[in-house]
Hints:
18% of the residues lie in helices and 23% in strands. The chain has 120 residues and is α+β, with helices and mostly antiparallel strands. Strands 1-4-5-2-3 form a five-stranded mixed sheet. The protein is globular. The protein binds zinc ion.
Amino acid sequence: MSSFIQRTELKTVYYTPVHCPFCGTRVMGADAEDETRITACPHTLFIAHDTAFEYRSERLDNNLELSALSELEIEQKWSAHRNGIDGFTDEVTVPDAIKVAAYAPAPSAYGSYYGFAPIA
Length: 120
Ligand SMILES: [Zn+2]
């Protein structure tokens, strides 16, 4: 039986840059000119926030059975999850996957989600 992605939450220093735990790539904000730019390494499964996926890997699409769906169908799928994109990405079962969930404090309550997994 496969297990679900392991979660780590950032709630206090939620703004700290997230790096891949397997190769050290800084996946967001590495470009000083454009802090919103994403640098996905081969281990990156997904990068998302509460309203959208910023990046989805083929491994993620295969694991969550999204490959055959349109972008609209994918959005409908995670939107229908009771915990939105956060809960949806908790259902990843890629072996030894790790998720970092960074929550900005209330009243913003804005979440960013980063998923990684080693390559077998
Ligand atoms: Zn990596």
